[in-house]
């Protein structure tokens, strides 16, 4: 699932601003994102059946582009819509309990900040690790201070075969350090969701992948 460099887009309806969220997702899929995570948080976030319907619509779109569909935090929703994966943070449900609940047919992403947390996540059967915030972010109210890439390097050195996805304030012009630290992918909200030209922005992210630089 993470064999090729990942451009992992995260979004919830509040991130779409004045754009139509499904049209935004479709543009991102058309532009070439490799993974999508529904992260429905913050003011105006959908809940209940409206959230289920939106999640089902996102999943359908992702399937049409053969892009894995992840749900943030909400194990019930992930199971209801039969997501391809779930992503949890350190403050969310215990990762062992989540793995037990979802079995091994669903991928499990866990946010970690150190080798110690990585050990723990991997002992629960995490499929990949999210690490951030690499840079300052305005998309997560309770984000920790920007951490740079040093912990990514350490976890990569300890677990060279585990996919690590960097997150937090990543833009086409600062993504290089994340790739160089050994990340298998970059996860992005605002730089894609808020772009005037979503497809062009994804092309710029693709251009940041080592060996795929253009111009
Ligand atoms: N998690 P943007 S930072 C959802 O550090 C999320 O774990 C983070 O959004 C972490 O690309 C973050 O707009 C927000 O900075 C990423």
UniProtKB/TrEMBL annotation:
Top-tier EC class: transferase
Annotated pathway: Cofactor biosynthesis; thiamine diphosphate biosynthesis; thiamine phosphate from 4-amino-2-methyl-5-diphosphomethylpyrimidine and 4-methyl-5-(2-phosphoethyl)-thiazole: step 1/1
Reactions this protein catalyses: 2-[(2R,5Z)-2-carboxy-4-methylthiazol-5(2H)-ylidene]ethyl phosphate + 4-amino-2-methyl-5-(diphosphooxymethyl)pyrimidine + 2 H(+) = thiamine phosphate + CO2 + diphosphate; 4-methyl-5-(2-phosphooxyethyl)-thiazole + 4-amino-2-methyl-5-(diphosphooxymethyl)pyrimidine + H(+) = thiamine phosphate + diphosphate; 2-(2-carboxy-4-methylthiazol-5-yl)ethyl phosphate + 4-amino-2-methyl-5-(diphosphooxymethyl)pyrimidine + 2 H(+) = thiamine phosphate + CO2 + diphosphate
Protein name per its UniProtKB record: Thiamine-phosphate synthase
Cofactor or coenzyme needed: Mg(2+)
Binding residue positions for 4-amino-2-methyl-5-(diphosphooxymethyl)pyrimidine: 37-41, 72, 111, 140
PANTHER family: THIAMINE-PHOSPHATE PYROPHOSPHORYLASE (PTHR20857), THIAMINE-PHOSPHATE SYNTHASE (PTHR20857:SF15)
Cofactor, how bound (note): Binds 1 Mg(2+) ion per subunit.
Binding site for 2-[(2R,5Z)-2-carboxy-4-methylthiazol-5(2H)-ylidene]ethyl phosphate: 137-139, 169, 189-190
Family recorded in the similarity comment: Belongs to the thiamine-phosphate synthase family.
Role: Condenses 4-methyl-5-(beta-hydroxyethyl)thiazole monophosphate (THZ-P) and 2-methyl-4-amino-5-hydroxymethyl pyrimidine pyrophosphate (HMP-PP) to form thiamine monophosphate (TMP).
Protein's gene: thiE
Pfam families xref list: TMP-TENI (PF02581)
Keyword Zinc: no
Binding-site residues for Mg(2+), renumbered to this chain: 73, 92
UniProt keyword list: Magnesium, Metal-binding, Thiamine biosynthesis, Transferase
EC number from the UniProt entry: 2.5.1.3
Domain of life: Bacteria
Entry's Gene Ontology molecular function annotations: thiamine-phosphate diphosphorylase activity
Keyword match Magnesium: yes
Domain Thiamine phosphate synthase/TenI residue range list: 8-192
């Amino acid at each position: 699932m993470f064999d090729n460099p990942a451009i992992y887009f995260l979004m919830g309806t509040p991130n779409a601003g004045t754009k139509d969220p499904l049209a935004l997702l479709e543009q991102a899929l058309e532009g070439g994102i490799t993974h999508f995570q529904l992260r429905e948080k913050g003011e105006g976030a959908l809940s209940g059946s409206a959230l289920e319907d939106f999640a089902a619509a996102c999943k359908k779109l992702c399937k049409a582009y053969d892009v894995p569909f992840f749900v943030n935090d909400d194990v019930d929703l992930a199971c209801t819509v039969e997501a391809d994966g779930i992503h949890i943070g350190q403050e969310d449900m215990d990762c062992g309990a989540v793995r037990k609940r979802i079995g091994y047919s669903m991928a499990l992403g866990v946010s970690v900040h150190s080798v110690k947390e990585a050990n723990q996540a991997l002992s629960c059967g995490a499929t990949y690790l999210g690490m951030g915030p690499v840079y300052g972010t305005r998309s997560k109210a309770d984000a920790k201070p920007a951490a740079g890439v040093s912990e990514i390097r350490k976890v990569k050195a300890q677990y060279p075969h585990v996919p690590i996805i960097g997150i937090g304030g990543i833009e086409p012009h600062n993504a290089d350090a994340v790739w160089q630290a050994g990340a298998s992918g970059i996860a992005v909200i605002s730089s894609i969701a808020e772009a005037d030209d979503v497809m062009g922005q994804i092309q710029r992210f693709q251009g940041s992948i080592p060996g795929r630089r253009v111009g």
